[in-house]
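User: Hi! I have a protein structure encoded as tokens and I'd like to know what sequence might fold into it. I'm fairly new to this, so please keep things simple.
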């Protein structure tokens, strides 16, 4: 087995400004991509969220899936703190477990989850890291389980493709500088998920194909 031993990127210093920076750069589009298929997880009992971030998705998820236990793993204490504060005092808080951990080192129960959620998370890593992580996490998903995914993508042609490449170059340079992000370019995460036995059952595109959401099922 390939071992990837490098520190997780550190998003602590960005946690407070993360939402504002996102809205300035992309308006509400990333939120639309995150939230558009949360209701498809409605029947799930155990959900693993990797790289939750500041809790905006979590706050929606606990309402969309009112019976689920949610296991939230993130390497950033500051992000987890914001996420926990977002749902503090609600009934849902009892159903959510927060774990500060590197997703590459965390233990996941075999076939323990009905669904995994990675939103703008897999694009933090290089292709070989995504393949390794998907392989580890896939073993924790029940047969027939779901993987809800959203990330940036590079449109096939035209101005949209040029624009996407430029914006991604700036984004990767910024996040490498601020967090130590290991990736320099988008990994082929959807292909890696398919290779690991997850097949798309629904997908949505935003901003001319620059942003994608996909729901995949483990066959
Ligand atoms: C780009 S942000 C995405 C946050 C959120 N999911 C969203 O939709 O905006 C990446 C998140 O993944 C976390 N993260 C990055 N590398 C990680 C790792 N190796 N293990 C666990 N969490 C990690 C960061 O702390 C951050 O909260």
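Assistant: Happy to help. Inverse folding works backwards from shape to sequence: for each of the 219 positions I chose a residue that suits the local structure. Here it is:
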């Amino acid at each position: 087995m390939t071992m990837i031993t490098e520190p997780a990127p550190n998003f602590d210093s960005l946690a407070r400004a993360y939402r504002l920076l996102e809205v300035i750069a992309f308006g509400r589009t990333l939120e639309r991509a995150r939230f558009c298929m949360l209701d498809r997880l409605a029947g799930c009992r155990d959900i693993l969220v990797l790289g939750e971030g500041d809790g905006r998705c979590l706050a929606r998820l606990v309402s969309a899936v009112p019976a689920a236990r949610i296991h939230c793993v993130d390497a950033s204490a500051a992000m987890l703190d914001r996420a926990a504060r977002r749902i503090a005092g609600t009934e849902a808080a009892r159903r959510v477990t927060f774990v500060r951990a590197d997703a590459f080192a965390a233990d996941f129960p075999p076939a323990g989850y009905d669904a995994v959620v990675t939103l703008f998370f897999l694009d933090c890593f290089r292709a070989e890291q995504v393949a390794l992580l998907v392989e580890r996490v896939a073993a924790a998903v029940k047969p027939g389980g779901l993987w809800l995914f959203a990330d940036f993508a590079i449109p096939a042609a035209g101005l949209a493709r040029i624009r996407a490449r430029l914006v991604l170059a700036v984004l990767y340079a910024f996040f490498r500088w601020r967090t130590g992000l290991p990736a320099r370019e988008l990994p082929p995460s959807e292909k890696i998920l398919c290779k690991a036995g997850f097949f798309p059952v629904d997908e949505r595109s935003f901003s001319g194909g620059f942003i994608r959401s996909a729901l995949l099922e483990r066959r």
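A useful reference point when you look it over: The chain has seven helices and seven strands. Feel free to ask if any position seems puzzling.
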